[in-house]
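ok new one. same drill as before - structure tokens go in, u give me an amino acid for every spot. 305 of them this time. try not to just spam alanines like last time pls lmao
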């Protein structure tokens, strides 16, 4: 995730420390690349809570008394010493951020590579298009001055094409905030244009939005109109495959749609790509928020695929 970059852009003018998870081993609450920011009286983000985070925040506030650019790398076994039973190991870097060394923030975008170079009393960072990530260990010698760490700038959010801005669509959009999705949200009803994030498209043109979705996109179809749902489902299954096509509906609706799709020469391979009804199996409830959380949990299962 790249939330920490947005936090950093906002907090940069005031004294701020950053805690970075360099590496983990075994069971650990968060993975390498996780970051949190700490000020004298606040914090943004989490490295997993518990005693590990409590100790790290203590160290972060202590480092704010040191000159800007000061950093240290520390190892934490997640055992009895910290009162945690994870059994893993975490290597953290804690630094007093130097606002004058944050020019790289202007270029930081998901999919690029962040190169961190440790120097005496300074941390230098730069953004590159093509670099090979370096694998860090939570054991052995800690990185010192001269060490160079290369990592992706967060996870590229999955494009999420959401068709329908009714109660369920609004619940999905609301709960998607903070999740690794890049939302593109469409409806055909002009009166919904006042909802933040909704793009109103004519019924004649909305299938073009399906065609424009990239190959790694997730498409969710849950409009107010069954013929429109069918039109969009046909468009989604007729194009090159995307990561996910989901349709809301009852068993009767879905059976009728599949019969029509077969008659419209959609083959079984394409029909197998349709997830209908949308949402996690076993989740009971028709409340918009229940459906929304079920759908988003289903889409989160696509991570890494």
């Amino acid at each position: 995730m790249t939330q920490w970059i947005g936090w950093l852009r906002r907090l940069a003018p005031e004294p701020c420390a950053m805690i970075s998870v360099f590496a983990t081993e075994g069971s650990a609450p968060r993975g390498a690349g996780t970051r949190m920011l700490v000020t004298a009286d606040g914090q943004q983000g989490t490295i997993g809570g518990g005693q590990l985070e409590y100790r790290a925040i203590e160290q972060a506030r202590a480092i704010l008394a040191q000159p800007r650019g000061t950093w240290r790398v520390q190892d934490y076994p997640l055992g009895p010493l910290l009162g945690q039973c994870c059994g893993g190991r975490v290597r953290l870097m804690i630094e007093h951020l130097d606002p004058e060394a944050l020019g790289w923030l202007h270029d930081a975008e998901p999919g690029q590579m962040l190169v961190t170079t440790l120097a005496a009393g300074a941390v230098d960072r730069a953004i590159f298009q093509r670099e090979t990530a370096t694998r860090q260990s939570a054991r052995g010698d800690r990185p010192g001055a001269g060490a160079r760490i290369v990592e992706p700038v967060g996870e590229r959010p999955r494009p999420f094409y959401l068709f329908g801005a009714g109660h369920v669509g609004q619940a999905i959009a609301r709960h998607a905030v903070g999740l690794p999705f890049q939302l593109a949200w469409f409806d055909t009803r002009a009166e919904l244009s006042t909802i933040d994030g909704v793009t109103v498209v004519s019924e004649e043109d909305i299938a073009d939005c399906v065609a424009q979705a990239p190959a790694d996109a997730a498409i969710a179809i849950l409009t107010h109109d069954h013929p429109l749902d069918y039109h969009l489902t046909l468009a989604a299954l007729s194009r090159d495959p995307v990561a996910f096509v989901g349709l809301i509906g009852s068993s009767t609706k879905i059976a009728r749609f599949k019969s029509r799709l077969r008659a419209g020469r959609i083959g079984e391979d394409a029909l197998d790509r349709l997830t209908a009804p949308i949402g996690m199996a076993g989740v009971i409830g028709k409340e918009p928020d229940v459906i929304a959380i079920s759908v988003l949990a289903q889409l989160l299962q696509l991570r890494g695929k």
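Residues 3-152 form one domain. and btw The longest strand covers residues 17-25.
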